[in-house]
Amino acid sequence: MAATAPLTQAATQPELTTDALVVLGVVLLALVLFLTERLPIDVTAILLIVVLVVLEPWTGVDPATGISGFSNDATITVLAMLILSGGVARTGLVQALGRRMAAYAGDSVRKQLFATVVATSPVSGFLNNTPVVALLVPVVTDIANRGDTSPSKLLIPLSYASQVGGMLTLIGTSTNLLASDISARLGEEYPELGAFSMFEFTQLGVVVVLVGAVYLVFVGHYLLPERVPAQADYLEEYDLGDYVVEAAVVPGSSLVDGTVGEATEALGPEVDIVQIVRDDDRSVAPRRETHVREGDVLVVRTDRDAITTIGDAAGVELVGDPQSDADLAADEGLITELVVSLDSRLVGERLDLERFREEFNAAVLGLRHRGEPVGDRLVGTRLDVGDTLLVQAPPETLDRLSRRDDVIVAREPPRPNYRAEKAPIAVAIMVGVVAVAALDIYPILLSALAGVVAMVVTGVLEPNELYDAVEWNVIFLLAGVIPLGIALEGSGAAAYLAWLVVSTAGFLPAIVVLWLFYVTTGLITEVISNNASVVLLVPVAAAAASAIGSNPFAFVMAVTFAASTAFLGPIGYQTNLFVYGPGGYRFTDYVRIGAPLQLLLSIVTVIGIAVIWGV
């Protein structure tokens, strides 16, 4: 290994052509859109395709190249792996593993953390880690509640464990598959590069998982505050005391024999009737056509101003307000949290309480938006990924919602409807997919597609469930950033950026330059998607390595590992968003536990790369 990083002939300054400037302008546009989130991520990806093709004389991206991302091996493989992960999810296998570990954990925080890591990291090496976290959020929350532990102590470690686990195999994350595809394409220019094998970096991945697990179990929980108390009262956590009241329908009221819809219109647009109490029976999330009777007590969720209006309204009389979850409890209604998922139809929608009730059969009691409780006005709040809705719904509704992709139910449904009898078949199919690819019998693309067909033929998945299992915004993101990567390489922009790195860091030891690429990738991933950071930095890293006479494969590995370990905030990785609301976290909580872990893994990973592949 070279002691320093001497500049080679390849490091002579490349010409900054008009083509390169135009492509760098498109890259800047992409960064701004990803950072500001002015457009949904999939819409941004489509816009990039359009811009690149329109600017073809400078970008070199013709219409065929522009849409090539949709037929790219990485895109199709990610699609197939998401479907396979969905099939395993339908069997309840991951949840069963989580519950088995919960039985071991008891009330020891370290045992609970150990159970969380063991149930998450190995599975994330073979199933896409995004659905793994979505499946385990309710399991881990229940582990915390049963052990009288704050869920805040376990949920960020759940997300981080899934990220490091994704580095165990090629199929652990979409980022690995995309990096493999880019590396194969760059192999024409750099002989050291090529597509990754199934277990190309498993040796280093195991080291990263073990170091991350030790940190999370023995150090991390000391750095996390108890944002959500153990066995928290939701009414208190969501600050609902001033917004949920009970109003009795008095004799002679105009509301008598009318419907819930008519009562809502009479009481005002900010009013949502979440329960009707009649003879000690509570009707949860009553439909608009439900009739109101004399003596009914309407449990109403509204804002402060509307409460005064209700108190002055004819036909009803305020009789109090619930003081705790127990006051709202009903045999037919459970209070829980719903997290808005990555590909949910709710993303970008303004909250409409009545429409939500009609679609989901659940009454909205509260909302956490960007980690903070929304106290006064819920109606019209624009929902985003990771927002958490506090709802009350019948048990059968939670069962149904747990099988939908719009929301993540933050507690296990009481009567889960899994296809447990299909679990051995699903495992056998996944083993077959991995084995065929690992033995180089057929490429991972073909074995994964064959696995999808096998899932349907064997009844693990119904044909209509295939599309629900796919995170379509991820697919569109891949399709959009792949041609951007092609333009970056073809225009010479990647070579110019590599020269800038080399010219400023060429006097440093090669291993330090490698570490700088790891850190830079990690920081960029915090503000844009991990897939976008790989597309932008893998070509630059390969060119920079070649320019200083180092191993391009080592630099590609550093970028790949760094892009899949985003620990500094909720935005950098989608699993961090999934635990944001249920954990009651603040942005600084991620930095507090994530910064030391990021630094630790940067050192461990870079040293591991140097030992295994050489710099």
Automatic annotation (TrEMBL):
<keyword id="KW-0813">Transport</keyword>
<feature type="transmembrane region" description="Helical">
    <location>
        <begin position="73"/>
        <end position="93"/>
    </location>
</feature>
<dbReference type="Pfam" id="PF02080">
    <property type="entry name" value="TrkA_C"/>
</dbReference>
<dbReference type="GO" id="GO:0008324">
    <property type="term" value="F:monoatomic cation transmembrane transporter activity"/>
</dbReference>
<feature type="transmembrane region" description="Helical">
    <location>
        <begin position="495"/>
        <end position="518"/>
    </location>
</feature>
<feature type="transmembrane region" description="Helical">
    <location>
        <begin position="425"/>
        <end position="457"/>
    </location>
</feature>
<dbReference type="GO" id="GO:0006813">
    <property type="term" value="P:potassium ion transport"/>
</dbReference>
<keyword id="KW-0677">Repeat</keyword>
<feature type="transmembrane region" description="Helical">
    <location>
        <begin position="593"/>
        <end position="613"/>
    </location>
</feature>
<dbReference type="InterPro" id="IPR051679">
    <property type="entry name" value="DASS-Related_Transporters"/>
</dbReference>
<protein>
    <submittedName>
        <fullName>Citrate transporter</fullName>
    </submittedName>
</protein>
<keyword id="KW-1133">Transmembrane helix</keyword>
<feature type="transmembrane region" description="Helical">
    <location>
        <begin position="20"/>
        <end position="36"/>
    </location>
</feature>
<feature type="transmembrane region" description="Helical">
    <location>
        <begin position="555"/>
        <end position="573"/>
    </location>
</feature>
<dbReference type="Pfam" id="PF03600">
    <property type="entry name" value="CitMHS"/>
</dbReference>
<feature type="transmembrane region" description="Helical">
    <location>
        <begin position="43"/>
        <end position="61"/>
    </location>
</feature>
<feature type="transmembrane region" description="Helical">
    <location>
        <begin position="469"/>
        <end position="488"/>
    </location>
</feature>
<dbReference type="GO" id="GO:0005886">
    <property type="term" value="C:plasma membrane"/>
</dbReference>
<feature type="transmembrane region" description="Helical">
    <location>
        <begin position="201"/>
        <end position="224"/>
    </location>
</feature>
<feature type="transmembrane region" description="Helical">
    <location>
        <begin position="530"/>
        <end position="548"/>
    </location>
</feature>
<feature type="domain" description="RCK C-terminal">
    <location>
        <begin position="323"/>
        <end position="407"/>
    </location>
</feature>
<keyword id="KW-0812">Transmembrane</keyword>
<feature type="domain" description="RCK C-terminal">
    <location>
        <begin position="232"/>
        <end position="316"/>
    </location>
</feature>
<dbReference type="InterPro" id="IPR036721">
    <property type="entry name" value="RCK_C_sf"/>
</dbReference>
<feature type="transmembrane region" description="Helical">
    <location>
        <begin position="113"/>
        <end position="137"/>
    </location>
</feature>
<keyword id="KW-0472">Membrane</keyword>
<dbReference type="InterPro" id="IPR006037">
    <property type="entry name" value="RCK_C"/>
</dbReference>
<dbReference type="InterPro" id="IPR004680">
    <property type="entry name" value="Cit_transptr-like_dom"/>
</dbReference>
